[in-house]
Amino acid sequence: MSKDAVGGVAPLPVSGTMHTIPARRLIQHPKEWSEFVPIVCSGWAMSSIALPDGRRQVISFLLPGDIVSIGSLLAPLSGHTVEAITEVTYRKFKRQEIKELLFGRSDLLERLFTLWNEAKARADQLALDLGRRRADERIARLILRLSEKVAKRSLVRTQTFDFPLRQRHIADATGLTPVHVSKILGELQRAGMIEINGRSLTILNGSELQRVADWR
Q1: Of these four, 33, 73, 78, 111, which has the most CB atoms within 10 Å of its CB?
Q2: Helix, strand, coil proportions of the chain in percent (round to 5)?
Q3: Which residues pair with 202 in a beta bridge?
Q4: Residues 17, 3, 161, 72, CA torsion sign
Q5: How many angstroms separate the CA atoms of 139 and 37, rounded?
Q6: What per-residue confidence (pLDDT) applies to 2?
Q7: Which segment, 14-18, 69-73, 101-105, 122-126, is predicted with the most confidence on average?
Q8: pLDDT of 3 higher than 60
Q9: Threshold 0.90, pTM exceeds
Q10: CA distance 24 to 129
């Protein structure tokens, strides 16, 4: 994928500045006003919302081609914290240039609407997962969603894919504790559904994992 592609589509015909930051550094602060729209070029990042006491909810994990916040396309304040999970390289585009491009290109504007609808669908699904699904369902669904996302970005050709997430990341994404996450991951591995080896995850029994996830 081109480093300037957005969500798996063609590169943007506008210039931008490249930046590289190490893991655990912020790409975007929730209260930071900015005239730029960052797009991930390499590495993994996450978008989250935090409570005053430090507890947070991960809204999405960001891969190459992802806009760090769809809202940043139209507004200077996203309200989300975007943090690098691994070393991340991203490109910052001026919002005004992006807006002019979008409103001058119907194909890109249509793609923006698609991205917005996808973000809303993910938010709806997250609310359902957190409110009604069991812990094993939440984690199984997260693994399957990430596997699909990585595959769509042509970053994987087998059932093994890069998986740099730690238990705290999964806990913050699923509304569980790290201890509970460790327990569920152990159960999934002992049942022969997945295997985690360092920074990679292999789906060994996709049909059984889908059954646990109530994947439809």
Answers
A1: 78
A2: 40, 25, 35
A3: 160, 195
A4: positive
A5: 30
A6: 47
A7: 122-126
A8: no
A9: no
A10: 26
